[in-house]
Each structure stands twice: as C-alpha cells, then as structure tokens.
Amino acid sequence: AGDGERKKREMKKMNFKTMQEKKRPSVMFDDMNNLTKMVANDVSPSLVITGQPGLGKTWNVTKTLASLGLKENEDFVHVKGRCTAAGMFITLFENSDKLIIFDNCDSVFKDSDGVNLLKGALDSYDKRVISWMSAKGLKDRDGEMLPRSFNFTGKIIFISNLPIAKVDSAIRSRSFVLDITLTSDQLLKRMRDLLSDVEPDVTLKIKRDALSALKSAHKKFEGVELNFRSLIKAIRIRQMGFTNWRQMVAEQVMGVK
C-alpha cells in the first residue's frame, strides 16, 4: 500500500502555480530577457508579459532592448497607460513596421474592439491585416483619414499587471506568454540579488538597512506592498538618517484598506 501511495504522489502533475512557486526569480527574468530578444530579432512577432506591479518588468524589457542597440522612438515605441481601441488602431498604423511596447494598457481588455485588434496584431501569421470597419473612419494627428485596413508587419510586447488568468485566452494563445508572479520569499530574494543595481548612488549598507526594514514591516503588518517601488521608498527614507526611519518605512509601505 505504501508503494502504491508513493507512486500516486510521484505521478501527480504539477500545476502552473506550483511550478511558478518553485522557479527561481532569476530564471523567470532570464526567460523574459530571452523572449524579448526573440521578438527584437524577428524570431517571434509578439510577447505578453503579465504579473504583479513593481517587479521591474518594464525595466527589464527596455534594458534588454537597449543592450541590443535599439533606441526608443527610433527602433521601438513605448505606449503607456490608458489605451482605447481607436487609439490602438492609430498607434498600430503609425508604427506598422516597428516594435511597439504596450505598457499597462489593460483598459483595452474592457473593449471587445480593442481585444480583437490586439488579437490581430499579436498573431503569428506573416501577414496580419488590421481592420477598422466602422461607419465613421479614423483620422491621424494631422486630420487625414486613415485606411480602413492595413498590413501590420511590426512586433508587439504587451506588459500587463493583470494575473495571467485574467488575460483573454485567445490573446494568450497567439503569443509567447510569460507570467512574473513571485511569492514573498521569491521577491525578497530578487531584491537581495539586485540590491547593488537599485539606487546605484546609495551605499550598500544603507540599502541593506532599508531592505531589512521592509522585510520586518512585511512580517509585522498586514497589507505591506512588497515590491521594488516600496524598496526604493525605504532606501530614500533610510538615506536621510531620520531617528524614526524604520517607523516611517513601515507607514509608507503599508497597504490602505
């Protein structure tokens, strides 16, 4: 009976969450860099990156593109924030042969037209025809009418703070997809590993103190926002040398309900 139970446990399949929790953060970000290089080098036309905010997803993507010699507004464009379906169509048309980073443009998922445009742009086909078939056509910034359809030959990296399960399955199926969701232990390890790169003009001693205070706050209080933005806040407070800096760090990183 013991052998039978052991075999059952061994045969049990690992789910996505368990696999992510066992994965080293450095491997996740190495995967992100490699997939970004595949898009930049025309091996794949699209990549969707999801996960918690404040983990450095955008920083890693732009750093990887820079390491390849690509320049923003020349070789790639970076679109941030709210994006309507019409805005996406215009952006895709104006940059139809470039690499486009859509960063934190999750509002597009609330519009079926936006989702359909994104599906077409992310597809893996050599020919991707993007269409806007409405009674009223769209105009560019100069007031000129845009065509109703065009062939998109560019590449897209879509960065979202949504959990991967919240992203439309048809969008996930059309691209390489990478989810960066870290446990608290994984995130603290990632912070330790990158401490020398964060706030580079600050001494390592101060940064270690700040990380220690952030870790203590996370252990003591509920709702602590554990991410790199919180770490930077903690470092800047510690750098000032206030007598109550630890309490100030805790107050700045605690979540508000």
Summarize the structure in words.
The protein contains eleven helices and seven strands. The protein has 257 residues and is of the alpha/beta class. Strands 2-3-6-1-7 form a five-stranded parallel sheet. Strands 4-5 form a two-stranded antiparallel sheet. Helix 3 (25-40) packs across helix 4, helix 9 packs across helix 10 and helix 10 packs antiparallel against helix 11. The chain starts with a helix and ends with a helix.
Count of DSSP H/I helices: 11
Largest sheet: 5 strands, parallel
Spatial shape: globular
Average of pLDDT: 87
Count of strand segments: 7
What does this entry show, briefly?
With 257 residues, the chain is of the alpha/beta class. The chain is built from eleven helices and seven strands.
